[in-house]
Amino acid sequence: MSLDTTRPEARHERLTAHEALQRLERERASRLTQLRAIGQAGPNAEEQMMSTQRDTIQRVLTEIEAAFDRVQDGSYGTCRDCFKPIPVERLEILPYTPLCVPCQRGTA
Fold first, then answer.
1. pLDDT digit string (tens) for 39-65?
2. Which end of the chain is more exposed for a tag (fewer CB within 10 A), N or C?
3. Rounded Cα distance, 85 and 42, in Å
4. What's the CA angle centered on 94, arms 90 and 99, to 5 degrees?
5. Which domains does the chain have, with CATH numbers?
């Protein structure tokens, strides 16, 4: 029995605005749930860890809100540095990213 190890062709289509908004809503809800859990952890939780988590979640929420703005202005799914389309696979994993992988790495 052989396994097909060829990679499927990369999908170059774009997420629809509706799909993007659904993904962003899920990401935002997840981060807000995390923030509520941190708020309920109480005084026994290690303050340094809680502060770091809170800051990270707040940063991601800011990125998610910016992605909502990009959906509205039509620039969602376009890299803000090189202006090329961000592959849909990347947007499925990180729906709020403003950058393609090469630009994120600084190799574009």
1. 777 666 667 677 888 899 999 999 999
2. N
3. 44
4. 65
5. 17-105 (1.20.120.910)
